[in-house]
Amino acid sequence: xxxxxxxxxxxxxxxxxxxxxxxxxxxxxxxxxxxxxxxxxxxxxxxxxxxxxxxxxxxxxxxxxxx
Length: 67
Prior knowledge:
Elements lengths: L4 H30 L4 H8 L5 H15 L1
């Protein structure tokens, strides 16, 4: 079942706050709002130098920490 926009927004804010803290989460949001931002380009460049095994390991560790 798909999550509502409200649920996604709430979970996203929780992740930002947990990961960055209140001040840096607000700073991140402010930066995203103020700057022209191409999400597709950002995502394509985000893991450019990351090996697949390393990225997979980080993803598996992140999932373990959620549950």
